Amino acid sequence: MKPEKDYDLVIVGSGIAGLSFALNVAKAGFRVAIFTKKDKAESNTNYAQGGIAAVTSAGDDLEKHVEDTLEAGDGLCDQTVVREILKEGPDRIKDLVDLGVSFSSLDDGRISLGKEGGHSKRRVLHVKDVTGKAIEEALLSAIAKEGVHLFEHYFAIDLITSKKARKIGVSIDGVDNRVLGLYLYDGVEKEVITISSPVVLLATGGAGQTYLYTTNPSIATGDGIAMASRAGLSSMNLEFIQFHPTTFHSLNGDRFLITEAVRGEGAKLIDGKGNPFLKKYHPLADLAPRDIVARAIDSEMKKSGAPFVRLDTPSMKIDFSDRFPNVNRNCLDRGVDPSKSAVPVVPAAHYSCGGIPTKLDCSTDLIGLYACGEVACTGLHGANRLASNSLLEAVVMAYRGAEAVCSFLKNKRDVKVNLPEWVDGDVTASDERVVLSHNLDELKRTMWDYVGIVRSTKRLERAQTRIRNLGREINEYYWNAKVDLSLLEVRNLVCVSELIVRSALQRKESRGLHYTLDYPERSEIPENIKVKPLLY
Ligand code: FAD
Ligand code: SIN
Known about the structure:
With 536 residues, the protein is of the alpha/beta class. The chain has three domains: 1-49 and 132-240 and 353-420, FAD/NAD(P)-binding domain (3-Layer(bba) Sandwich), CATH 3.50.50; 248-348, Succinate dehydrogenase/fumarate reductase flavoprotein, catalytic domain (Flavocytochrome C3, Chain A, domain 1, Alpha-Beta Complex); 433-520, Fumarate reductase/succinate dehydrogenase flavoprotein-like, C-terminal domain (Methane Monooxygenase Hydroxylase, Chain G, domain 1). It has 15 helices and 19 strands. The protein has a five-stranded parallel sheet with strand order 6-2-1-10-17, with helices on one face. A four-stranded antiparallel sheet has the order 12-15-14-13, covered by helices on one side. It has a three-stranded antiparallel sheet with strand order 3-5-4. Helix 1 (16-26) packs parallel to helix 5 (131-145) and helix 13 (430-450) packs antiparallel against helix 14. The protein binds flavin-adenine dinucleotide (FAD) and succinic acid. Residues 49-50, 259-261, 351, 387-388, 390 line the site of succinic acid. Succinic acid binds next to loops.
């Protein structure tokens, strides 16, 4: 099936946010298409392990979940947003169950609730340690039944806005500050197509691939943030990159996630001598918020010079392979049996707490443009996301956003414009392609070395100089080249990296995930950092 020329709603991305949103809008009878750049299930969602946090047990209540979220967010969460989103959690969990997600249960039939860092209660619903895969599968099957068109191997390049169209002389009288459609690269036919739509949803996920070591799959290249920036939108709080404390340490640089739920079931982080060390850093020890655990590991590794610490799994009082079959298999594949040996772990880039600022209905500052999931910055996570709050945020916000889009579409004034056609370059020189992959290596290394867990102004400025040079080179090539997936991704990675660094340089304090040696204290007045759009 080929895409049509226009839709009521075009969604970019087929993770939990894009699929949930599509389902809710398609149910109202609108024509919805999802475009996704690789295979349909390939997303951060598909790899989520720990689960989805919500208040579902008698011993828990909304206020405790709110308190834990605010505590983890280190004074920067928007309290109204936190309460609104968390309060709708139980209803959205019920929707997932109705779609067929079979959350793990205890022998007596009650839902099994996991615990993760920063949670004062057991409240993480999970499907063993493959929660994301179970949710992704249920949603994919639901949207197919609802008649949503899903197109794989289409890469969204750029939004077409009224402002851009007017600039190149396309007549769009009376239409202001709105999105009109987008350009997509068809990875099979190797051509760019133009689609018109009054509403576009960016559900493109995170940007972990800006770093050398990450838990994120290869799709996580920050495309939505870069596209929004080129369309004239500011980004918010992008300096808050969450480093997951525990990923399997392999010499080849592959970083497989060891879910925090393992610590929730009693595993402790230990140093080279086998001693637990987290108590020195926080009263909650191994279940302290992630920013604190990641910094503690970083500090222990720097002190000892060792390339990793260990997670003491053999001392756990559970059947590891039954509770964590996926982690167990992956450790065995890498030569470690968690029931017999402690697992070598290191932190890696994991989650982007900042993104495109959105309101509580997913709308952005550009009319018709919505953002949902990891690409968005709603105010829920503040300076550090509480574990397992992101899947929750995505389903709740997709539901709210879909309601808003349905009423927008019902009231829409039809805008018929001939969208400007895509103009391609013609350079395919292979020696330039080699340089491109070297540029990417340099970018990821720079972000890892200079924009990591512990920062300083000098390191950030060094990173900025390098990233700007890379940006100039890549851009010059971009405007002459025939586009393809790797070029489009590198261009976006450079753009997002520069936005992260600019945001980090603007924050003159240490808070949550942003720790800088030059401003080690937290300022009294919490402030969101907005970075102006970058036009490449
Ligand atoms: P994704 O699920 O990442 O989906 C993005 C989609 O957009 C993909 O389909 C991608 O191909 C597509 N896309 C991107 N750019 C383009 C483009 N230019 N054109 C077309 N398509 C594009 N969170 C929790 O709450 N609980 C957990 O247990 C948990 N565990 C995690 C474990 C791992 C290993 C990782 C990496 C993350 C985990 N997270 C967890 C975080 C959570 O999984 C993500 O934040 C969430 O899944 C993001 O969903 P999303 O729909 O916003 O984006
Ligand atoms: C994990 O399972 O440790 C990841 C949970 C999350 O990122 O929310």
